[in-house]
Known about the structure:
Layout: H1 3-32, H2 35-40, H3 50-86, H4 101-106, H5 114-123
Helix pairs in contact: 1-3
Amino acid sequence: MNKKDKTYFRKIILEKRDALLEELGLLKETAVEESSRESSGNPSNYSYHMADLGTDSQEREKAYLFLTRENKYLGYLNEALERLERGEYGVCNMCGEPIPKKRLEAVPHASMCVPCKTDVKENGSK
């Protein structure tokens, strides 16, 4: 991968990372910290009605699920940046062949080419 491509993909990854960090902040702020208060109309973190308690619990579980998923994605983006720094970005970690640019544009954190990823998904091998 040449210097121009590295700069191009670094920009894509950093833009996605920045958007994700903003989304994580909003998720944490709005879903985790406010969910229990807003659903009951109660400024405290304690719900008095059983229905509110159930809604609060469901909202917290949903927020934690989203936060976990987004944190995992953030990890993939950080790993892609590290591979870029080490000069390993854009090379399939299974077969060693270059990953097509179209795939990297669609999935900038991709570490495998489509045939290898498909093989892993279908056969569970790695």
